[in-house]
Write a structure and sequence with these properties.
By secondary structure, the chain is of the alpha/beta class. The chain has helices spanning 7-15, 21-39, 47-60, 90-93, 104-111, 154-161, 178-184, 218-228, 272-287, 303-318, 336-347, 350-363, 369-389, 415-419, 427-431, 460-474; strands at residues 42-45, 71-75, 115-120, 140-141, 144-148, 167-172, 187-190, 210-215, 258-262, 291-295, 395-399, 435-442, 448-454. 38% of the residues lie in helices and 14% in strands. Helix 9 (272-287) links the parallel strand 9 and strand 10. The two termini are 18 Å apart.
Length: 485
């Protein structure tokens, strides 16, 4: 079953001609056709073009790069030339928006021969933690389709876990790669802010958004990061810090490193099964020779309110371009003001409207100093918490989410409860540091639970090596797969 292979496994078979790129791509397409009616993970399908590209790769016959001939899915905020890109919002879907250019990330993947087979579901403009705000409907968890796949990269996580692709692209603003990866039982990395280019990826919060990937092994994540990371002249926020070969750096030796355990990440309210799984994972790391040290990240309790002031403030700015005139949904109206009102009211969903209103309020005259400016000050304190901690420890470990995947509709009428799902995943975004989500156990209901490995700025090499060592020890035969009923 070629579609179940990791990138590195598939590359070996492609290199030896044991399988062809067309066979691998066709297997992923067939899996989408077989199971996606239950998952709703894939919202745009580029199947014919993908098969054509695969045939071209096979005809050329050289697989010098590990990603050559490998099929992938991209979250529906990545622009790909000639492919619908709607951010799962009616404001673009109603006009059948097709991107006229490629994002830097998809361009770099295409340059080495990777094959795009479609776009994955996301919360509208990535605003959410469950994909329930998508105009295409919710993506379900492959382990239990009565539950959410997480968000906003829920479609990408579900697709990887269900073997609909070999890997998928996601974005992480406040946990949007790590949380769905944890819910679905695959691996996801949020990279350091500025490590990967945001050019051609529709923005939610420009100072928080980070580009990353979801895959079936840490080895694959390392390979992908080496390919897509680096300075981009089209994105001024990318850094000139050299990009190492992350794959070569995976030596599996973590003996003697110190892992920080933040006490704020283990409150009394933490789900007992999540606590047990994380504690067991920490014991596994100890067996591998690491030392642990309890640390404090004292401003963690302010992370969610800080995030939900800064993020909506940036949202209201980024959403201003979707006015129905330059592009976006059009509406009937008697004058220009009514036109703006109708186009945006009809095009945007409730969560986007909510964040635009919160952000506009926080930035308005008389309230800017009381909310936005104060939030930015607390953001600095949160960043300093991590900087101080990394003077004492090499990496930090804790839960990704307070619970396993929750039921569809559980938080529909309570947006604050939905925001609190991000309690362990927004601090890293505010500080701009990398964090890896990797499965570490299962609940009694057979739902995946994940541990989060955090590192200092530009510390992906360290984070990936700890994750790689843990995966080899915890899942020597590979991470378990869901049986989709």
């Amino acid at each position: 079953m070629p579609h179940t292979l990791t990138i590195t496994q598939a590359h070996k078979k492609l290199k030896t001609k044991a399988i062809s790129s067309e066979e691998l791509t066709s297997a992923c397409i067939k899996q989408i056709e077989n199971v996606d009616d239950k998952l709703n993970a894939v919202v745009h399908r580029n199947f014919e073009l993908a098969i054509e590209k695969a045939k071209e790769v096979d005809k050329k016959g050289t697989f010098d790069h590990t990603l050559t001939g490998i099929p992938y899915l991209a979250k529906d905020v990545y622009c790909e030339k000639g492919v619908p890109t709607t951010a799962c919002s009616n404001i673009l879907r109603n006009k059948d928006y097709v991107a006229p250019f490629d994002s830097t990330t998809t361009q770099r993947l295409k340059a080495v021969g990777a094959i795009s087979i479609g776009k994955t579901n996301t919360d509208e403009f990535t605003m959410g933690a469950s994909t329930e705000s998508s105009c295409y409907g919710v993506t379900t968890c492959p382990w239990d389709t009565s539950r959410v796949a997480g968000g906003s990269s829920g479609g990408s996580a579900a697709a990887v876990a269900a073997d609909e692709c070999t890997f998928a692209l996601g974005t992480d603003t406040g946990g949007s790669i790590r949380q769905p990866a944890g819910f679905c039982g695959c691996i996801g990395l949020r990279s350091t802010y500025g490590r990967t280019s945001r050019y051609g990826v529709m923005s939610m919060a420009s100072s928080l958004d980070s580009i990353g990937s979801l895959a079936k092994s840490v080895e694959d994540i390392a390979l992908l990061l080496s390919t897509i990371a680096g300075k981009d002249p089209l994105d001024a926020t990318t850094s000139s810090v050299p990009v190492p070969d992350y794959l070569v750096k995976l030596n599996g030796d973590i003996k003697g490193i110190t892992v920080g355990i933040p006490k704020e990440y283990f409150p009394d309210e933490l789900d007992p099964e999540v606590r047990e799984a994380i504690e067991n994972a920490i014991e596994t790391l100890k067996k591998l020779g690491v030392k642990t040290k309890e640390i404090s990240l004292p401003h963690t309790k302010y992370a969610v309110p800080t995030y939900y002031i800064i993020c909506p403030s940036e949202v209201c700015s980024n959403m201003a371009r979707f006015d129905g005139i330059r592009y976006g949904h059009t509406a009937k109206a008697g004058d220009l003001i009514e036109y703006y009102f109708n186009a945006r009211s009809e095009g945007f969903g409730d969560e986007v409207k909510r964040r635009i209103m919160i952000g506009t309020y926080a930035l308005s005259a008389g309230y800017y100093d009381a909310y936005y400016r104060q939030a930015q000050k607390v953001r600095t304190l949160i960043k300093q918490d991590f900087e101080k901690a990394f003077e004492e420890v090499d990496v930090i470990a804790g839960p990704v989410s307070p619970t396993p995947a929750f039921k569809i509709g559980a938080h529909t009428d309570d947006p604050v409860a939905m925001y609190l799902e991000d309690v362990f995943s927004v601090s890293q975004a505010l500080a701009g540091i990398p964090a890896l989500s990797i499965p570490c156990g299962f609940s009694k209901d057979k739902l995946p639970i994940a541990i989060q490995i955090m590192g200092p700025q530009w510390g992906e090499e360290r984070v990936l090596n700890v994750g790689y060592s843990f995966q080899k020890e915890a899942w020597p035969e590979g991470i378990p797969k869901p049986e989709i009923a």
